[in-house]
Write a structure and sequence with these properties.
Blueprint (H helix, E strand, L loop, with lengths): L19 H63 L5 H26 L8 H18 L1
Helix pairs in contact: 1-2, 1-3
Length: 140
């Protein structure tokens, strides 16, 4: 190329030598790329959270079934032991009441831990805030 009299610049012109139109064009191109990357990050983070929630729910269900079977035997043992002190019907009523109270407390704790707040893509939100700050700096 240099043989035909054309000048060859190995580096792009310095920012002071570029036109405003060129700078705005670069800014628009970079903003578009940044937006696509942020969307990809949000998708990846949300799919990761959904997968984590699904596997956690499956393990919770499996553990719950096994624990329930064990709990049935423990309740029967408690009822048979208590039947030596009070009538059979009273022993069953006492054990059943205690189990219902414990189950209600566990259910309330579980409900509080499954809030939508735990699914918020925190890294993406922070990255978007950082990008907005970067864009403000570029406009100065």
């Amino acid at each position: 190329m240099a043989e035909r009299g054309e000048s060859f610049a190995p580096f792009p012109p310095r920012p002071a030598e570029r036109s405003v139109g060129g700078l705005l064009s670069d800014l628009a191109r970079q903003a578009n790329l940044l937006l696509r990357q942020e969307i990809a990050l949000a998708k990846a983070e949300l799919f990761g959270k959904i997968g984590q929630l699904g596997s956690g729910a499956g393990m919770l269900a499996g553990g719950g079934i096994v624990a329930f079977a064990g709990l049935l035997y423990l309740m029967a043992a408690a009822m048979f032991g208590l039947a030596h002190v009070v009538p059979d019907w009273a022993a069953a009523l006492i054990v059943g009441g205690v189990v219902v109270i414990i189950g209600g407390a566990v259910a309330l704790i579980g409900r509080s831990r499954m809030r939508a707040d735990s699914l918020v893509p925190r890294r993406t939100i922070q990255s978007l805030k950082d990008d907005a700050e970067w864009a403000r700096e570029q406009m100065r």
